[in-house]
Backbone:
């Protein structure tokens, strides 16, 4: 009997709504793409986006910028980071996070993870106590939100400024609080595979007046800071404006228009992602050879990707599993490979970082960790077929 294959691409995103396209064309015809190129009394598209996203995020300030990675750099600097400072960070993350830390001149102190891909609270407690770091870049990697109560408590105990990387948790919550509202600042990505798509782009959100003012100046406001959608009071800018460098990273009006048009659909799309995630999860659990940890009930996640671990087979067979699934149209990434592939890399491949530690626990967990995108272009029938294919190919290799 011929086994069914999956035919849809894993990299195809949904098209833009008509009203977004119409607004983008209007901006292009007007020619004023720069966020500060406005007429008297006009509010720029980028400033309107900042107002609307701050309201959605339930944050006081939002700064729209060129990328999530850029947002992380200026978040660190805006929180008082200085060159050479240590920064606690998940060892399980994607390359832009350590890249941002390195670009800012920081020294990452990598923290282990558990079998559920959450940051290891005991290891975090130990390293927060012993290494003197005053900053933490917490990556909610692949949408897995760790115990925020414990993390906030540790940061408060040791005087650590918490910055959240919410690239995979836009729209998610922990115990009813939006991801990103636990620390001094939060960073979001609007890259194509994230929850709002402008190709590239990012947000920094904060409730801290001085962090917001410094971030606005750093993005390159040219003393036009009051044209931002959510500016702090003038006296705060007077304090920081001449001592804060311009590190040009503004969002333009065209990308802002794309994001403004998608924002009203975000919560509905979160529901759609979770329907697909839960269908895949139920299908994958049908195989006794696949492990998926239970999500905590108070973690309101966004299931735009799914992770699982093949068991009852040698780790050496996982590349064959990935290959066999690929032949049937299902694209899986494996975090256990010694060589970085596409978007997937492991902490020990970031060799520009001095004195990389040995982290045996994360290597063990990632040696079996497989990852898969969940595009909204898939329907629930597609998800059932994908889960069936993964189960069949896993069971065929299991002992």
Residues:
């Amino acid at each position: 009997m011929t086994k069914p294959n999956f035919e849809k691409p894993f990299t195809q995103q949904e098209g833009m709504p008509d009203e977004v396209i119409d607004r983008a064309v209007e901006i292009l015809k007007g020619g004023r793409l720069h966020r500060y190129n406005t007429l008297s009394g006009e509010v720029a598209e980028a400033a309107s986006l900042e107002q609307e996203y701050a309201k959605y995020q339930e944050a006081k300030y939002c700064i729209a910028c060129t990328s999530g990675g850029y947002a992380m750099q200026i978040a660190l600097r805006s929180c008082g980071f200085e060159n050479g400072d240590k920064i606690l960070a998940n060892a399980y993350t994607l390359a832009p996070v350590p890249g941002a830390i390195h670009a800012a001149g920081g020294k990452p102190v990598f923290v282990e993870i558990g079998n559920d891909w959450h940051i290891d609270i005991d290891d975090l407690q130990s390293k927060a106590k012993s290494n003197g770091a005053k900053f933490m870049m917490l990556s909610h990697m692949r949408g897995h939100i760790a115990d925020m109560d414990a993390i906030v408590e540790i940061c408060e105990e040791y005087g650590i400024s918490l910055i959240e990387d919410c690239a995979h948790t836009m729209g998610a919550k922990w115990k009813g609080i939006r991801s990103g509202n636990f620390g001094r600042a939060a960073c979001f990505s609007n890259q194509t595979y994230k929850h709002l798509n402008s190709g590239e782009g990012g947000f920094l959100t904060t409730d801290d007046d001085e962090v917001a003012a410094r971030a606005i100046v750093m993005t390159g406001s040219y003393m036009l800071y009051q044209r931002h959608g959510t500016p702090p009071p003038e006296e705060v800018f007077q304090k920081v404006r001449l001592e804060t460098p311009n590190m040009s990273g503004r969002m333009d009006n065209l990308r802002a228009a794309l994001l403004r048009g998608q924002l009203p659909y975000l919560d509905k799309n979160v529901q759609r992602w979770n329907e697909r995630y839960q269908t895949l999860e139920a299908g994958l659990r049908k195989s006794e050879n696949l492990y998926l940890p239970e999500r905590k009930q108070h973690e309101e996640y966004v299931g735009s990707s799914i992770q699982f671990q093949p068991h009852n087979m040698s780790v050496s067979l996982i590349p064959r599993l990935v290959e066999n699934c690929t032949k049937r149209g299902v694209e899986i990434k494996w975090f256990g490979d010694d060589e970085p592939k596409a978007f997937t890399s492991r902490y020990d491949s970031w060799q520009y970082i001095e004195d990389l530690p040995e982290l045996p626990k994360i290597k063990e967990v990632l040696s079996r960790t497989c990852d898969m995108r969940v595009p909204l272009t898939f329907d629930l029938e597609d998800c059932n077929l994908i889960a069936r294919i993964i189960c069949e190919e896993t069971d065929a290799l299991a002992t």
